[in-house]
Amino acid sequence: MKSWWITKREGAVVLEPRDIPQPQPAAGQMLVRMRAASLNRGDMLARIKRHGAQTARMAGVDGAGEVVDAGGSTLLRAGERVMFRAPACIAEYALVDPALASRVPEHFSWEEAGATLAAFITGWESIIEFGRMQRGDWVLLAGASSGVGVAALQMAKYLGARVIGTSGSPKKLAALKSMGMDVTIESRGSAFVDAALEATDGKGVQVVVNLIGGTAFPGCVRVAADFGRIIIVGYVDDTMHADFDLETVHGRRLQISGISNTPLSPVQRAQAHAGFMRDIGPAFESGAIKPVIDRVFAFDDAAAAKAYVDSDAHLGKVVLRVA
């Protein structure tokens, strides 16, 4: 079968195509015929040690397709449309843990289904599980135009929060405003602090999601309200270290968490999937929330799709269609 692999070549992270045997499911695994898969920065960047690609590995963390073999699942059957999180899924077939899969909502296209779970579950963990967001809270998304940022915006508004978003692109901010973002701030790094504090009458925000990296972290601490929660998700600025203001963290009783799928056990991943579907699944079924897709590429154009993601031109998700 056709597949795409992540590797490092001359210091750069690249996608390369390979023909490999079709995977065979073990006990408890579903075999899925892939129809769409999304590109995710954490997978593609391969910058931090746990996501490294010194040895080539298959690409992909989430997608959608048709069940070929249900793997003994009592909830899903052969022939059903499913969306899921699974490694090595930018390929013609993928092996999937049934506990990390759900039926595709009837009105979702393959591309929408393939763009859903990695971004939305990460966003759910950020603002709900660890952020403990409540109706009426202020949420700040530093780097709001990413796939996780747009998903978090949609969920936060659905659940009654007020959202501030930052981006260096006026065009992206205008699009985010049209999606319901309450306050948009054109900035890079930590330059959003004064505008965010002004928007909250100097009180700060309850939940801060850092999708930028080290250059934004000092600002995230400064805008957090008393008892605020700061969630670290990404490092698109390639800055892994930042000043740490102990006095503010201590004095305001701030909580700082990191979101990564890598260290989770299968049980923990299944718990996150179930919690997300409990809270947000009804919004998918009703049509209140649908993934925002910037661009769809053909499967054979995966390298071009990665280059497009690397250019940071997209808003929302970039998806591969598996013909």
Low-confidence stretches: none
Q: Count of DSSP E strands?
A: 16
Identify the CATH class of the largest domain: Alpha Beta
Helix content: 25-40%
Shape field:
globular
Following the backbone from N to C, one meets helices and strands in this order, namely EEEHEEEEEHHEHEHEHEHEHEHEHE
- How far the N terminus sits from the C terminus, by CA atoms, comes to 13 Å
Q: Give the overall average pLDDT.
A: 95
Radius of gyration: 19 Å
CATH superfamily of the largest domain: Medium-chain alcohol dehydrogenases, catalytic domain
Work out the helix count.
10
**Main sheet properties:** 7 strands, mixed
**Count of separate structural domains:** 2
Structural classification: alpha/beta
Strand content: 25-35%
**CATH-assigned fold name of the largest domain:** Quinone Oxidoreductase, Chain A, domain 1
CATH architecture of the largest domain: Alpha-Beta Complex
